[in-house]
Write a structure and sequence with these properties.
Elements lengths: L2 H11 L12 E4 L8 E5 L4 H10 L3 E4 L16 H11 L3 E4 L2 H5 L4 H8 L3 E5 L8 E4 L6 H12 L7 E3 L8 E8 L4 H6 L4 E5 L3 H10 L2 E4 L2 H5 L2 H12 L6 E4 L9
Parallel strand pairs: 2-3, 2-11, 3-4, 8-9, 9-10
Antiparallel strand pairs: 1-4, 5-6, 6-8, 7-10
């Protein structure tokens, strides 16, 4: 597969035009290696992910979080990002990121969460911000029971979760936004959700949820987005089925909270 073919396929299902104006999707580093033989899929670039890419012989890393958000005036190898860029270029490894574009797209992070939780009638919020989804539980359940189900679906231990609300509350309509979605709790209330699942919930958003009596499960930014790796890898294997390009899922646990 050539870089041109790779880009065309990526744009066909996850166009950069879907990304938020402040975001940076697409090639972060584009080396002069013309063909893509091995792709490593990771949530983001870290020193351990770069080492993994070198060890497995990857030509390209596909990430969710961009390596570069704003303009860079200096590439300093002693700086974290500068060091990553320097090492990647030295090893002829390109980086391509699908951030908010993948959150919004059909079959992306947020649609995938609904599938993992076995929810029914998965759809975008009526007030469509592009990110949030909602669905109904096909069974009678409580907030406390759903916490365990989310832990299993996300493969994240419950000790990393924060919660707002009564564990005994009956849950039927669930809303969610992967990553950092505390700002959408108000939308979830207007959508009639009994529970909203996201990450990075701030104090004042949690207080608002408590007053409005909507349950909130903060699964963490990492916890609600680590699913990117398996989801993107499966999509790429299907999209690249006519090419002799190997798709490898990163095995590095990059959760900074231990």
């Amino acid at each position: 597969m050539t870089k041109k073919e790779f880009t065309q396929i990526m744009e066909s299902f996850c166009p950069n035009a879907l990304a938020e104006p402040w975001d940076n999707c697409g090639f972060q580093i584009n080396s002069d290696i013309e063909h893509v033989k091995k792709v490593l899929v990771a949530l983001e670039v870290t020193s351990k992910v770069i080492h993994e890419a070198i060890e497995c012989g990857a030509d390209l890393i596909v990430t969710h979080h961009p390596l570069i958000f704003g303009g860079i005036k200096t590439i300093d190898a002693s700086d974290v990002t500068g060091g990553f860029i320097s090492k990647l270029i030295k090893n002829d490894i390109s980086v391509y990121s699908c951030h908010t574009s993948f959150d919004k797209m059909d079959g992306g992070n947020n649609d995938y969460i609904g599938q993992l939780l076995d929810l029914e009638n998965i759809r975008a919020f009526d007030y469509d911000n592009g990110f949030c989804r909602k669905g109904e539980t096909p069974f009678e359940t409580t907030f406390g029971e759903l916490i365990h189900q989310v832990s299993l679906g996300f493969q994240v231990e419950e000790r990393f979760f924060n919660t707002v609300g009564d564990m005994r509350k009956s849950i039927n309509c669930i809303g969610w936004c992967s990553g950092s979605g505390g700002e959408f709790i108000r939308d979830a209330v207007n959508e009639g959700c009994d529970l909203f699942i996201t990450g990075d919930v701030k104090y004042h958003d949690a207080m608002y949820a408590m007053e409005k009596e909507i349950c909130v499960l903060d699964a963490g930014h990492f916890g609600s987005e680590k699913i990117f790796v398996e989801n993107m890898a499966d999509i790429l294997r299907y999209k690249f089925k006519d090419y002799d390009t190997e798709i490898i899922e990163s095995l590095v646990d990059i959760n900074p909270f231990v």
